[in-house]
Amino acid sequence: MQQAAYDLTTFENREQRPRLRVARSPKAKRRVDLSGFKIIAVVAVIFSLAWGVLYSRAQVTELTTQISSTESDLSEAKSEYDYLNLQLESRTDLETVEDYAVTQLGLVKVDSSQITYLTLESEDKVVKPESEVKTLLENFSAGFMNLMEYLAP
């Protein structure tokens, strides 16, 4: 006796039926090709980065030129300042001033006959002026006393 579980003869003479295919409606799935767009985007990014680097280099070069120009102007101004300072010192020299005073202004040096000494007979003292408030109060009180004398019998 054979067991039915292992009996494979039941499957041997089966008719082969063609399988049914389901007809699908023709949907045109069109894939968008983004590879061209990606390449253009990458090229645009690279171009913008390169432009940014070149522009920043140009700005650095321009600012460096301005700095060197300003430094040269500063050195010229310092040298002119030193020259004018020396000219001022030479014109304000004591001998130059004395010569100008004698020749142009007609001044002479002081001699001993022009010096006058003062001697004070009393002691030196400092006089402090009265404050305005105190003076005002004294004037007011004196006026009030005069008014009281006039009114009094």
Short description:
This protein has 153 residues and is mainly α. The protein contains three helices and no strands.
Structure description:
This protein is an all-alpha fold and 153 residues long. 57% of the residues lie in helices and 0% in strands. The chain contains three helices and no strands. It has helices at residues 35-91, 94-103, 132-151.
The end-to-end span amounts to 173 Å
- Radius of gyration, in Å, reads 59 Å
> What is the H/E order?
HHH
DSSP helical segment count: 3
Mean pLDDT: 83
Give the helix level as a range of percent.
55-70%
Q: Label the structural class.
A: mainly alpha
Total number of strands: 0
Shape: elongated
Largest sheet: none
Share of residues in strands: under 5%
Low-confidence stretches: none
List the SSEs and their pairings.
Blueprint: H1 35-91, H2 94-103, H3 132-151
Features:
153 residues, mainly alpha, 3 helices, 57% helix
